[in-house]
């Protein structure tokens, strides 16, 4: 086994091990990760600060720092939630996610009209696993969609 493959195997094993931890523990890790990223200005701090200054010049420095701290909290939550996808059961996933409003999409597909499904990261990122038949595959419109580009290893 070459060195790169060994590193990849070790990282994958660690990620899968961490993913099996209960969500309260993962959110505790998330809180620590968020504090570290915010405190040590890890991951694009200057870009975030500059963008906030340009987009919301009315914010004080203190308010801007609060927004940045919340951003890092969301980023850390997204990281641990994405890790959880390595081991979450379909049952647990379905308990955490609800989808609404697919009736019009399904009606358009049934009528033969072309449709596009565009979503934000709350559907395409955390808590979505289309290759496992959930995102939500109960919608006929999404059943016919090729999700191979976002495929996750099959269980």
Shape: extended
Tell how many strands the DSSP assignment holds.
0
What is the number of helical segments per DSSP (H or I, 4+ residues)?
Answer: 8
Overall mean pLDDT score?
78
Percentage of residues in DSSP E strands: under 5%
Main β-sheet, in a few words? none
Radius of gyration: 19 Å
Q: Unreliable stretches, pLDDT < 50, 5 or more residues?
A: 121-127, 129-141, 143-155
Global structural class: mainly alpha
Give helix % range.
Answer: 55-70%
What is the subunit arrangement here? single chain
What sequence of helices (H) and strands (E) makes up the elements? HHHHHHHH
Distance between the termini: 25 Å
Quickly list its features.
155 residues, mainly alpha, extended, disordered C terminus
Task: Write a short abstract of this structure.
The chain is mostly helical and about 160 residues long. Helix content is about 60%, strand content about 0%.
What does this structure look like?
The chain is an all-alpha fold and 155 residues long. It is built from 8 helices and no strands.
How is this fold's topology laid out?
Blueprint: H1 3-19, H2 23-39, H3 45-55, H4 61-84, H5 90-96, H6 103-110, H7 121-124, H8 140-143
